[in-house]
Amino acid sequence: MSKVIKVLGTGCPKCKSMTAVVSDVIAENNIDATIEKVEDIMEIMKYNVMTTPVLVIDDAITVKGRIPSKEEVLALLK
């Protein structure tokens, strides 16, 4: 089953870094997942979070306000 990953953020450098880390982990570990970049502030507000970037995996908020390590992302995806 493919995982649905969303990176919530308005396109700031931290958001771009988080997207890059997640993309690398998926590629390096051959994980079946799709990454969706959510930049619309109204869409982000629906998640009721105040700090970005936010990592959402299968509709569950897993990381917010910081950039996770590759190891952390990998653990969250397993």
From TrEMBL:
InterPro entries: Thioredoxin-like_fold (IPR012336), Thioredoxin-like_sf (IPR036249), THIRX-like_proc (IPR005243). It comes from the Bacteria. Residues 5-78 form the Thioredoxin-like fold domain. This is Thioredoxin family protein. It comes from Polaribacter sejongensis.
